[in-house]
Design a protein that fits this description.
About 30% of the residues lie in helices and about 25% in strands. It is an alpha/beta fold. The protein folds into two domains: about 110 residues, ATPase, nucleotide binding domain (Nucleotidyltransferase, domain 5, 2-Layer Sandwich); about 80 residues, Nucleotidyltransferase, domain 5 (2-Layer Sandwich). The strands form two sheets. It has a five-stranded mixed beta sheet, with helices on both faces. Strands 6, 7, 8, 9 and 10 form a five-stranded mixed beta sheet that branches. The longest helix has 18 residues.
């Protein structure tokens, strides 16, 4: 098994995981406004705990998005900096796929509808099947306004859910309650990104070619009165 360091700040979670010599070491905290302060100490902490240096690793894994624009930028920038410093390849993982992987790890489901609250009345979403314990994409990540016809829940009856989008829009997206809802996979974790890399054939890129996965190309900000 490769020695890999995974980081994710694409949502409210600041999450770091290291697998080295078959041992998993993790650090996770829900702190949406402290990612830039927490991330590097978490990285240093897992490396120290495992007794390994960055240069001894085989690569880095990063949650590339979609999610919080600021959070995605923090994670991708950190991954690039670490990769440049140790000349390591980077494996970008979609945060929706990490959510689906977490739901598969925790729940007995044949597939997962991953859905993140994208704010501004929209959601990021994608579909994943459980193939031998690994979340495999069945659709590209997309952004849309929640609607009763957005997801064919009748066809996906019995699938699980993951992500914060279900906290807000479950009654709209699954009005007939066809899916298996659970609140144990709300935010992505770096440890599940390691599983995705090892099991789903994620291709590495060089640091200078790493790009965030925003999905939403344009952002419209509502001005406050008087601004």
């Amino acid at each position: 098994m490769k020695s890999l360091l995974a980081i994710d700040t694409s949502t409210e979670n600041c999450s770091v995981a290291l697998v080295h010599d078959g041992k998993l070491t993790t650090r996770d905290i829900e702190s949406p406004r402290e990612h830039s302060q927490k991330l590097l100490p978490f990285v240093e902490g897992v490396l120290d705990s495992a007794g390994v240096s960055l240069a001894e690793l085989d690569g880095l894994v990063v949650g590339a998005g979609p999610g919080s624009f600021t959070g995605v930028r923090i994670g991708v920038s950190m991954a690039q900096g670490l990769a440049f410093s140790a000349d390591l390849p980077v494996y970008p993982v979609c945060s929706l796929q990490a959510l689906a992987q977490q739901a598969i790890r925790k729940n007995d489901v044949s597939g997962v509808v991953a859905c993140i609250d994208a704010r501004m009345g929209e959601v990021y979403y994608a579909l994943y099947t459980n193939e031998n314990g690994v979340a495999v994409a069945q659709s590209e990540p997309a952004v849309a306004k929640p609607d009763t016809n957005l997801i064919d829940t009748e066809r996906l009856k019995g699938w699980g859910t993951a992500g914060t989008g279900w906290d807000v829009y479950a009654d709209i997206l699954d009005e007939n309650h066809e899916l298996k809802h659970s609140d144990n996979s709300r935010l992505p974790l770096a440890e599940d990104m390691l599983t995705v890399v090892n099991g789903a054939g994620v291709e590495p890129v060089q640091a200078e070619l790493l790009e965030p996965l925003y999905v939403r190309n344009e952002v419209t900000w509502k001005k406050l009165p008087g601004r």
